[in-house]
Prior knowledge:
CATH topology of the largest domain: Peroxidase, domain 1
Number of helices: 8
Amino acid sequence: MSELATLARPYAEAAFKRAKETNTVGQWSDSLAFLSAVVKDNEIAAVIQNPKIPKDKLTGLLLDICQGKLDVEGENFVKTLIQYQRLSLAPAIAGLFEEQKALYEGYVVVQVSSAFPFTDEEQGNFASNLEKTLNKKVHMNVQVDQSLLGGVLVRAGDRVYDGSVRGQLQQLAKRL
C-alpha cells in the first residue's frame, strides 16, 4: 500500500497545486472521486490492465465515460495518467488529494466504527469532543461494526483511538 502512495503522491500534489492556483479545489475533488469510482469498477479495471488495448482507445473510452464530469484540465490529467500507465493509481491519488484538501481547509476526516448506531445528538456531542481533542474541525464517517462488542474505534489520519470492548479485551489478553 505504501508503494501505491509513493507512486500516487506526485500526481496528487500536482493536482492539488493546480486546484489551488485556479481556485477549483472542490471541482478537482469531485472529478478525482468520480475517476476513482470509474477505475475501481471491475470491468474497467480489467480493460485498464489489458496490455492489448492501445492507449488511444483507452483514453477515448475513459473520456467518454467521464464526459461532463471532467473539465479540460481533468481530461488532460486522465491522458497523463494513461500515458504513464498510472491510471490504476486514481483511487490513491484521490485519497491523497482529499488529505491535502483537509489540511488546506483546516479539518480532519475521521473514520468512526461504533458497536451501535449513534443518535444525532450523540454524534454531535462525539464530534464536538473529537474537535477539542484534535484541535481541528472534524468530518466524521460513522459505520456500525458489531464485532466491536461495545464502544468505538476512531481513526483520524495516522492516529487510532481504540475505545472498543474488543480492543480492551485484546489488551487484557496481552497483559495476561
